[in-house]
Amino acid sequence: MDNRPIGLLDSGVGGLTVARELLRQLPNEEIVYIGDTRRAPYGPRSSEQILAFTWDMVNFLLSKNVKMIVMACNTATAVALENVKTKLDIPVIGVILPGASSAIQQTTGKKIGVIATQASVRSGEYPKAIHFKSPSIEVTSLACPKFVPIVESNEMDSTIAEKVVKESLKPLIGKVDTLILGCTHYPLLRTLIQKTMGENVKLIDSGAETVRDISVLLNYFMLNGTEREQINHQFYTTAGVESFQIIAEKWLNIGHINVMHAEIEEGKEL
Amino acid sequence: MDNRPIGLLDSGVGGLTVARELLRQLPNEEIVYIGDTRRAPYGPRSSEQILAFTWDMVNFLLSKNVKMIVMACNTATAVALENVKTKLDIPVIGVILPGASSAIQQTTGKKIGVIATQASVRSGEYPKAIHFKSPSIEVTSLACPKFVPIVESNEMDSTIAEKVVKESLKPLIGKVDTLILGCTHYPLLRTLIQKTMGENVKLIDSGAETVRDISVLLNYFMLNGTEREQINHQFYTTAGVESFQIIAEKWLNIGHINVMHAEIEEGKEL
């Protein structure tokens, strides 16, 4: 009924983990993806900056005539979701509530860990979402500021990555039964994280959980796309296209991806 | 954030299959259930009548200050969802799209069957929803007008029930790999239906699928209830309370249920 694209935004390449799930679960949907690689990582930035940068990307996506916006970035979701959602007349969805809801369903011992960027941890949005629904759950949050730079520089398979993951997660080992990957970059380190935490810890990919919610909202607002021959996804980055393209092709595994450079207008809210 | 109840409506007791899933999956939510048992079944009625009766129940639920309305009835959904949804400023959700979406995901041979009431089959809403997303799927619809009276009279375990189910489903046997129980009464006959269709046929309980969507919409519209000591579900029927109560207690399995008689005002739209 509505073949306009779905817009995804992220501070960089992390949101590609959401894009991958979206392409897999919703093959009739076209996406426009914008990664603000030039200004990544968002995690150490102030809330004011994150809000302003998120608006820059929202306005870029609106210029592409999107029917829905997915904040495929936990940091942007934590800081900007409510603000953006109330100002737009298209649906806007973030990755925190879907991840929190799924973790509540899956925890067996009521001990949930959340790893995320500094800004996300500071926002307290995950514990808030979990405790709102289930106050008796113990939530331990841990900022892992070194993870995003590893992913953005495509060093996921390096020995440095292994060392950083091991050291960063030490405070959580043995203390949680469920771990929310509270940053869309982190599923790119999933194997290392699982190995470090142990096979019994259930990892929650908040991005993948979000796609189920996107599907429900497409139904609810009657925005589903139709099956069609030609679907042209668009990928934009605010920095150079090359390293973005390498990660996108490796991660999405849908053949050649044409990544374009985006000049986004800064500082203009809706 | 919002402890108002969720309203569920059905032509009779069928929607209790949705209520059961809702109570299981969303323990923080209180429900108000109205079954129009006096005027059930809806299936053989005209669209005009079904629309008017549905509005009677919607108005009853609105008088109970509900935060969301679930049409836990395929017939009402097929005929009245769009009309009611556009006129209310609270979310209104039906059972057809969730069931159709789930069937599309689960079919292995692209042959989906739909069993429903006459009015639902006549509306063509299931094939429409499935073909919109996936035109290459073969959809076979079959009206089973004898099923609802069996359930409403609590004869699910009788030999008559077995005979009726076997004869009714004959046209579908061997022809579908997935079968949508396109009436919320039908899960009460699930064992018989599965036995008749064969173990390899995947049965889709549209009501249970709907509860996942309800959960997403509660998140999206920030309408979740909080964990609290006392939750008082309310069950109403437009006919006598006794047989409703027997089925409700058997099916919901949450101890004593206080069923009340509802006098609903007729013929007053919003």
UniProtKB/TrEMBL annotation, chains A, B:
<dbReference type="InterPro" id="IPR015942">
    <property type="entry name" value="Asp/Glu/hydantoin_racemase"/>
</dbReference>
<dbReference type="GO" id="GO:0042802">
    <property type="term" value="F:identical protein binding"/>
</dbReference>
<dbReference type="GO" id="GO:0008360">
    <property type="term" value="P:regulation of cell shape"/>
</dbReference>
<dbReference type="GO" id="GO:0008881">
    <property type="term" value="F:glutamate racemase activity"/>
</dbReference>
<keyword id="KW-0413">Isomerase</keyword>
<comment type="pathway">
    <text>Cell wall biogenesis; peptidoglycan biosynthesis.</text>
</comment>
<keyword id="KW-0573">Peptidoglycan synthesis</keyword>
<comment type="similarity">
    <text>Belongs to the aspartate/glutamate racemases family.</text>
</comment>
<dbReference type="InterPro" id="IPR004391">
    <property type="entry name" value="Glu_race"/>
</dbReference>
<dbReference type="GO" id="GO:0071555">
    <property type="term" value="P:cell wall organization"/>
</dbReference>
<dbReference type="InterPro" id="IPR033134">
    <property type="entry name" value="Asp/Glu_racemase_AS_2"/>
</dbReference>
<dbReference type="GO" id="GO:0009252">
    <property type="term" value="P:peptidoglycan biosynthetic process"/>
</dbReference>
<comment type="function">
    <text>Provides the (R)-glutamate required for cell wall biosynthesis.</text>
</comment>
<feature type="binding site">
    <location>
        <begin position="74"/>
        <end position="75"/>
    </location>
    <ligand>
        <name>substrate</name>
    </ligand>
</feature>
<feature type="binding site">
    <location>
        <begin position="184"/>
        <end position="185"/>
    </location>
    <ligand>
        <name>substrate</name>
    </ligand>
</feature>
<dbReference type="Pfam" id="PF01177">
    <property type="entry name" value="Asp_Glu_race"/>
</dbReference>
<dbReference type="InterPro" id="IPR018187">
    <property type="entry name" value="Asp/Glu_racemase_AS_1"/>
</dbReference>
<feature type="active site" description="Proton donor/acceptor">
    <location>
        <position position="73"/>
    </location>
</feature>
<keyword id="KW-0961">Cell wall biogenesis/degradation</keyword>
<feature type="binding site">
    <location>
        <begin position="42"/>
        <end position="43"/>
    </location>
    <ligand>
        <name>substrate</name>
    </ligand>
</feature>
<feature type="binding site">
    <location>
        <begin position="10"/>
        <end position="11"/>
    </location>
    <ligand>
        <name>substrate</name>
    </ligand>
</feature>
<feature type="active site" description="Proton donor/acceptor">
    <location>
        <position position="183"/>
    </location>
</feature>
<dbReference type="InterPro" id="IPR001920">
    <property type="entry name" value="Asp/Glu_race"/>
</dbReference>
<protein>
    <recommendedName>
        <fullName>Glutamate racemase</fullName>
        <ecNumber>5.1.1.3</ecNumber>
    </recommendedName>
</protein>
<keyword id="KW-0133">Cell shape</keyword>
